[in-house]
Amino acid sequence: MKGTNEKLLRIFNHYGRRKQRLKAIEELSELQRALARWDLYSVDDNYHNVIEEIADVIVMIRQFYFAVDRHEVERVVNEKIERTLKRIEKEGK
User: Fold this and answer.
1) Which of 69, 52, 63 lies closest to 14 in space, CA to CA?
2) How many folded domains does the chain comprise?
3) Is residue 63 in some structural domain?
């Protein structure tokens, strides 16, 4: 059986960047709605819906990892983490 990365690349290549970009937008929107409902209603069903939508978004993000420079993404992620930690230090926490 192929590894997860190979499977995600196959999916991305099959549908193409444009379709997967639109699918990613759809999944992000669904996660946004699920998170809003979770905050409003805090019902177990909403929690499970949030889990499902997070998984969908992760699948899409991991596909796009192949379409960009992964090292550049990791560099920017690390910069953002460090920036947030500096903000926390300034807040005195």
Assistant:
1) 63
2) 1
3) yes
Q: Is residue 28 part of a domain?
A: yes
Residue 33 lies in a domain: yes
Q: Which two tokens stand for residue 26?
A: 């759809």
C-beta separation of 38 from 46 below 8 A = yes
3-state DSSP: the chain helix, strand, coil percent, rounded to 5?
Answer: 85, 0, 15
pLDDT tens for the chain, 93 residues: list them.
579 989 999 999 999 999 999 999 999 999 999 998 887 766 666 888 999 999 999 999 999 988 899 999 999 999 999 999 999 999 986
Assess if residue 91 is contained within a domain: no
In contact, 70 and 82? CB cutoff 8 Å: no
Neighbours of 46 (CB within 10 A): 17
Q: Which domain holds residue 51?
A: 4-68
